[in-house]
Amino acid sequence: MSWHILGAGSLGGLWGARLFRAGIPVRLIFRDRVRLAQYRQVGGLRLREGDDTSLYPLAAETAQDAVPIRRLLLACKAYDAEEAIASIAPRLASGADVILLQNGMGSQDAVSARIPRARTILASSTEGAFRDDTFSVVHAGQGHTWLGDPTHPGEPPAWLNELSEAGIPAQWTDDILGQLWRKLAINCAINPLTVLYDCRNGELNAHTAEIQSVCEELCELLRHTGQTEKASGLYEAVLAIIDATAANTSSMLQDVRSGRRTEIRFLLGHALEEAHRHSLKLARLESLHIRLSEQLATRGLPID
Ligand code: NAD
Ligand code: KPL
User: Fold this and answer.
1) What confidence score (pLDDT) does residue 221 get?
2) Where are the domains of the chain?
3) CATH class of 3-174
């Protein structure tokens, strides 16, 4: 059975290239014929790993192709996910597996609602990749991907072994929502502040009082959403990640510096929506959201 990848960008390209070179059938789906023609002209997907660069001629098609899709990796940004899934929804076979690789939370529910006959599998990834050209991906940081299905947590799909064959570090978890919530909380505590202070992660060590108060509110939110366990040691974990990634520029700051839209709506935005749903007043997070939105608007970037 072939994998289909919709969103042939950094992570989609990284997964695609590794599946392809392991001999596992995989097809990239491009938005339209123009994009497909551009891809064919360069002859495939380029992947740089350390000092090695290879060209992988993965098969490709457009969203309008007629072949049914049985296993799909949706690897676009969270704000593009609904429109992207709508473009191929009629092609999804009944019971197809659709893996959602989006960071943050909120987009997954919106996508699942559009494809009720498919099984949606949520993913949370710490891999690091970026594009240095349109069809060229750099694998910048080794990471891990957790996969899970909150509606059928004890039923890992049979194709998980294909990921290990392809050298994609991944594992099934019975608690993917907990995993996504914990990552969301960590990203909310670090990423917005790196934008506001325009600094590398390590420089946040000068703002630990602010980080602590943000973490206190995130913990309150986690407890109200039933994620009490994920609140445990959050501040200490955030400080440890700041130290471990001290020289890095957060993904949100990278987006802002490159003039790209951020995923704010699916991080802080989602946290505040959930707080509102639980009638929780989180003044620090609200103020952080307002300051970040102002900063994005000043730079001419969308605030959602
Ligand atoms: P990216 O921008 O590099 O790639 C997304 C791709 O999706 C682009 O090529 C874009 O053209 C394509 N796309 C968007 N809408 C489409 C549509 N309708 N039809 C076809 N293609 C469409 O993004 P990325 O960095 O790979 O991130 C994807 C998700 O993974 C994000 O939610 C991100 O936060 C998350 N993530 C990324 C990394 C990373 O290191 N890049 C790490 C962890 C999580
Ligand atoms: O995930 C991250 C990101 O930059 O998006 C880290 C490095 C953990 C900071 O939140």
Assistant:
1) 98
2) 3-174, 178-298
3) alpha beta
SS3 state at 214: helix
d(CA 165, CA 154): 22
User: Are the C-beta atoms of residues 190 and 241 closer than 8 Å to each other?
Assistant: yes
Q: pTM of the predicted model, to two decimals?
A: 0.97
Q: What is the CATH number of domain 178-298?
A: 1.10.1040.10
Residue 285: name the closest of 177, 176, 191, 180 by CA: 191
What pLDDT, on the 0 to 100 scale, is given for residue 124? 98
Distance, CA of 213 to CA of 285 (rounded, Å): 9
Determine the atom of ligand 2 nearest the C-alpha atom of 186: 10
Contacts of 247 (CB under 8 A, 6+ apart): 200, 201, 202
Report the C-alpha dihedral over residues 151, 154, 156, 158, rounded to 10 degrees. -120
What pLDDT is recorded for position 43?
A: 97
40 HSE (CA, 13 A, CB side)? 12
Residue 106 CB–ligand 1 contact under 6 Å: no
DSSP letter (8 states) at residue 23:
T
CA distance 14 to 11: 5
Is the beta carbon of 78 within 6 A of some atom in ligand 1? Answer: yes
Residue segments in the chain with a per-residue pLDDT below the cut of 50: none
Longest dimension (CA), the chain: 56
What pLDDT score was predicted for residue 114?
Answer: 97
Q: Is 185 touching ligand 2 by the criterion CB < 6 Å?
A: no
- Catalytic (active site) residue 281: no
pLDDT at residue 134, as a whole number: 94
Q: What is the dihedral of CA 7, 117, 267, 295, to 10 degrees?
A: 60
Q: Give pLDDT, residue 45.
A: 98
